[in-house]
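Example for tutorial group B:
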């Protein structure tokens, strides 16, 4: 067999871009073939630091500038912190100071939410993409435009719906968030849902439906079915439906999505 010619740096970069890798993870290149350096000292234990003065909520255990803790400690910290936010602004501030999730270090901006926090309906996606990362708002790219059309189809827009994601920072290159990252951010989106207190919760796509609604089946099975979601203070109606990004790739499922949207509208007016 003739060996493949060695790709040039230009070809490699073009390949990475095509694969969705559009940011570097470090300022310095890492030679992963070099001999391992001397053993590094154990990471410093994370210690509490004060939150910015404008908030009254207690200081997170993991704050800006601290060494990132082991993922399990970060999940525990997120679970302990999220319920302490008394308002959405508290929660935003808390997330901004939370350094447990490494995605924050590669993201351009935190993407907290868009829409009306008084809305009766809340949509939860997975994680921001490139456009959202640049603008700091969820669902503003191509899939966001489709979400806007889906909302319009049932008489909604961003003044009558609230939109957020499980993960508020873009995973580099739009890779899927890891299970740890999802678990780490879950307490925050749960608290966000509780604070918005919508009557209806719509999870967009499988990752959101499985993580938020704790469903085991895939989206083909779960979409369009109402389930109860306990916000912590009350039980509300929740439904998984297709993620708009999936519908852009598989427009054939728009037909089923239309059925879901009609069911959502019926529930909202009843
Ligand atoms: N996909 C998501 O899940 N969320 C966004 O905000 C954008 C794309």
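The residue assignment follows.
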């Amino acid at each position: 067999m003739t060996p493949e010619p060695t790709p040039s740096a230009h070809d490699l970069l073009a390949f990475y871009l095509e694969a969705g890798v559009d940011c570097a993870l470090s300022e310095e290149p890492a030679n992963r073939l070099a001999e391992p350096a001397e053993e590094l000292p154990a990471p410093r234990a994370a210690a509490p630091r004060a939150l910015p003065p404008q908030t009254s909520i207690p200081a997170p255990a993991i704050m800006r500038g601290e060494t990132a803790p082991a993922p399990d400690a970060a999940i525990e910290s997120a679970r302990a912190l999220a319920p302490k936010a008394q308002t959405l602004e508290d929660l935003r501030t808390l997330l901004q100071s939370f350094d447990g999730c490494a995605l924050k270090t590669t993201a351009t901006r935190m993407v907290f939410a868009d829409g009306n926090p008084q809305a009766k309906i809340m949509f939860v996606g997975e994680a921001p993409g490139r456009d959202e990362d640049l603008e700091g708002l969820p669902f503003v790219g191509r899939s966001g435009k489709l979400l806007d059309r889906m909302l319009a189809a049932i008489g909604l827009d961003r003044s009558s719906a609230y939109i957020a994601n499980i993960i508020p920072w873009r995973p580099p290159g739009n890779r899927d968030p890891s299970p740890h990252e999802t678990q780490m951010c879950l307490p925050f989106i749960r608290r966000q849902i509780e604070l918005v207190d919508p009557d209806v919760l719509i999870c967009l796509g499988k990752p959101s439906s499985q993580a938020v609604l704790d469903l085991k089946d895939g989206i083909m099975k779960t979409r369009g079915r109402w389930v109860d979601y306990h916000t912590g203070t009350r039980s509300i109606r929740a439904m998984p439906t297709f993620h708009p990004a999936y519908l852009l790739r598989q427009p054939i499922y728009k037909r089923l999505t239309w059925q879901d949207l009609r069911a959502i509208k019926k529930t909202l007016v009843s």
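The beta strands are 114-115, 121-125, 162-165, 200-204, 227-230, 235-241. Compare this with the pattern of hydrophobic and polar residues in the output above.
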